Amino acid sequence: MTNSGDVVVATDRLTKRYGKGEGTRLAVDAVSLTVRRGEVYGFLGPNGAGKTTTLRMVLGLIRPTSGTATVLGRPAGGPEVTERVGALIEGPGFYPYLSGRDNLRVMARYRGLSSDAAEIALERVDLAKRGNDKFRSYSLGMKQRLGVASALMGDPELIVLDEPTNGLDPAGMQDMRRLIVSLAESGTTIVLSSHLLAEVQEICDRVGVINGGRLLRESTVTELRGGTLLRVRATPPDKALAVAMRIAGDDGVRRIGPVENGRGPVDDVETLVLSLPPAMAPEVARVLIAEGADIHEIALLERSLEEVFFEMTTPVAATPTVPASVPNL
Ligand SMILES: Nc1ncnc2c1ncn2[C@@H]1O[C@H](COP(=O)(O)OP(=O)(O)OP(=O)(O)O)[C@@H](O)[C@H]1O
User: Fold this and answer.
1) ipTM of the complex
2) Which UniProt keywords apply (predicted)?
3) Which of 33, 52, 98, 304 has a CA-to-CA distance to 27 between 20 and 30 Å?
């Protein structure tokens, strides 16, 4: 059970429609999401999905057309909330001719924080040594890190980062991910948006998948990747199929080719994918054996986040791609 004090962000049918009349665009459509204390929450979706718009409403930067956003138990955007939240959303406005350190000091003063806050933040993002260099001389990665430094000044309970690794090279991305994980380890709740599945898979505890303004799914990364599919390989094939359909239902079984290992089929045993939870594996095994079938394999099928994501976001009823490959055979 989740205690309501553990909920840091909750939106209820949050909706944003841009424009009026013919040119109107529904950017966010009745999104209800929940972010819990201490987690790294990934808001995942392709370009134009509605991520930034949702985050802007959560931060109180724009008003929803309908629905609500509650942050730390209060309506989003109120002054008592804003000072407990840090954000990096659309490139931070830094003065190019000031040093990184002075930029942060200016911001700290503006927000009523001590200049210690600027120094601590510089240390946290590993920029203290380059703190006296002018902002305009920074690499993109350093600029992004300074943005995160500005978000974490004053020790906010929640940090919201919109595509924090966008535009960074692989090393810069890795640095940023490490920084996010270290912030989370120190107890800060983090919401980040990303269109990078690998990134979300690597650093997020839970994920909300958004496409076309709608929240398609919200769950842990592990849940999202599956655990609800069983791969069954048994012979004779017609007997295996009959048993599978009896247990999983006609629509709960997909037939895919024999398992491949990169050099071709491993054997000629057909693979069945059953939409069943892992706990059903013993039952499947029992019935197959009772029916006189030989079991070659029953396994939990782990899909990559990428496969799940494309299944969810592909508009046509595409046949989901299920990997039939067996690693290291
Ligand atoms: N100020 C605006 N006026 C009109 N339409 C807008 C505005 N801002 C965003 N949109 C539209 O709303 C939809 C959602 O945009 P949004 O920026 O929230 O998506 P996103 O998931 O953050 O995408 P990206 O990763 O490309 O930034 C898009 O179709 C976009 O064109």
Assistant:
1) 0.96
2) ATP-binding, Nucleotide-binding, Transport
3) 304
